[in-house]
Structures are given as C-alpha cells and as structure tokens.
Amino acid sequence: MAFPPAGCDTRPMRSRHLSRVIATPPHVVYAYAAEPDHLPDWAAGLARSAVRREGDDLIVDSPMGSVRVRFVAPNALGVLDHEVVLPGGESVWNPVRVLPHPAGAEVVFTVRQRNMTDAQFDEDCLAVERDLEQLARILER
Hints:
Layout: E1 15-22, H1 26-34, H2 39-42, E2 52-54, E3 57-62, E4 65-71, E5 82-85, E6 91-94, E7 96-101, E8 104-112, H3 118-139
Antiparallel strand pairs: 1-8, 2-3, 3-4, 4-5, 5-6, 7-8
C-alpha cells in the first residue's frame, strides 16, 4: 500500500493524538490488535460484527455503515495504520502505533477532524478512547 494511499484526504486538518498505556508487552498488544477477527471485540467504533475478507481488504459493519478497511503489512515496528473507505467513497487514513512503555505498551491513535463539526470530532475521539479502554480491559485480564 502506498503512503498515504491514493485517494486519502491529505488536506490540512486538526488532529488529536489519543493514547492508552496497557500493562502488557508491546508485541502481545500488537499481535492482538493486528488480528482482524479481534476487531469486533475491542474496536466498536470500527467493527460491530464479524469481519469479512475480500482479498487483502476487510469489510466491516461500522457505526457509519459498511466500510472497507486496509491495514499496512504486518511489521516489527508496531505500526497499525489503516485506511477506511467510508460508504460514500471517502478514504480516511488512521495512524496507529503500539509503542514500548515502562509499564508495558502505549497505543497511540491519531484522530483527524476531516469534514466534521467540533462536536462530531469530539464524539469520534470519545469513541476511539472507549475502544482503547476496551483493548486494555481485554489485554490486562
């Protein structure tokens, strides 16, 4: 996948970096979060039901409708960047990193405002924070 993928919106926009420290080794966090079949368990803001595969693409039922998701190739750097193609065809690039942290791992998700009101952006950020909290609950059991 090219960086950023063709069709992704690259206009200047407001970003917010959300993070959650998880008391689990980074390689365990990465392996769990990178597995598409785990998305409905922790990423309700993206996947509300089982993931369907079409080649390298994932098709998920999201709060926005059916979306197509493409993750970067598996890597040893903790990069979980992914492109989401929304029902209307708009493509959104989501940078996500799993970083080593003294307490385990830190997951950093960059949320971009795009074509949202400030209230919608805040709601989107809250959804990502809930997803990161759920990821931590699962992995810290």
